[in-house]
Amino acid sequence: MTATNADFFGHPVGLRTLFLTEMWERMSYYGMRALLVLYMTGAVSTANAGLGMSPLEAQAIYGIYVGMVYFLAVPGGWLADNLLGHQRAVLYGAIIIALGHLILAVPIESGLFFGLGLVAIGTGLLKSNISTIVGKLYADDDPRRDAGFTIFYMSINIGSMVGFAICGYMGEKIGWHWGFGAAGVGMLFGVLQYARTRHLLGDAGLAPNAMPDTTRNKYRQWASGAAVLAAVPVVLFGTGVIDVQASVFAENFAYFLTTIAGIYFVYLYAFAGLNAAERKNVLLLFLLFVAAAAFWSGFDQSGGSLNLFARDYTDLNFMGFDMPVSWVQFFNPIYVVIFAPMFAAFWAFLGRRNLDPSLPLKFAVGLLFMALSFVVMLVAVGVALESAPIGLQWLLLTYLLQTWGELTLSPIGLSAFSRYSPKRYVGQMFGLWFLASAIGGVLAGLLGGEATDGGLQSMSPIFSYMIQYYLVIAAILLVLTYFFRGDERRASGPNS
After folding, report:
1. Residue 494: partners with Cβ closer than 8 Å, 6 or more residues away
2. What is the value of pTM for the model shown?
């Protein structure tokens, strides 16, 4: 049975629980992430001592971390589908995330990798499954679904604003580990809120898929064995027994993630026993997956190369106050809160008139906005080469264009994976959606490291390359728009 009470802005009441849980989780995630590269590249000789890493290595670690956060959403979705149920997976994930942030608050260098590892594991359990529950609050043909995901998406940005404001200030002005600790306290608020109001979700995502007890016991054994196997290399890397250069690991990790995604899409399309309509939907979702991975490789520069550009080449003095570097990232969530209702209303307006653009067209527009944002950065780099530091307006315009691209692509992608995924694979398909973020995150670390490794001189070639591949993928999507428009309408029904 699906929750039907409509008293949260005209949506099911359970959306409020999920909204607040996601808000606190994103507060902790983005608040800590805003500090991560700054902390790793910070000088060791200052009062607020960093780790003194090179931009190349620090951003490789950043990319690995972001990639792990979203890669683990795939096994997290599988565990929820088959063993835990989505509601319990969210609860367990939230608790693990809180523990990870609290470990990061301890000022010991070895705590960095163990803390990041726990945050990644917890987010893998929480991130895809909380989105799955949002989808389960609505019937397949409920016209409120897209608007509901957009409202839910606003919680991400409200949470990130709080995280940037509190964790950013405390980390840069008081001490890095104070900022990490603030993220942990925020996540504890999220755990308590979810535990107290979880009953509002009804049975949406409560139980795992039905199956014989023998099958479920077999799955439990597989999961336990996989957890032990995964724990061994984590401990070896974390304790320094195995020493691997971060940039080399990140490169191979990107290949691994791409291979896993390709294999899984081939499996779904050819061997999962899907009917013809479901296979067409899987093909559509694969195209959106490729576009999303490319998009996030640029968007996640905010915590890497754009963060370092703000620190090293941008004047952050505002009326005599030296603004924390991480506060520059504050503008993306502000833009989202301002523009998300406008985008939601615009899609609803077009939908009522049967003019809603196809999914590939929306994604192509998102990539075009991302390309434009790096055109702005190319100009900004040129200005900085003449006389740095430069004004903040360059980064503000860059983040505005990226936000418009985000609103065109990300909440729409969540809704698409909810609507078009084969029903018995929905949790794992949400995991695949976040696997696109994983690939994008690793690429962001690698590209950002190359862009900043030689200072301003190395930025222009990398940013130019990124613009080119956004334009190529957007052009392919525009061509494919014609072929998928009819299939979308048949798949979604007359009321979508």
Report:
1. none
2. 0.84
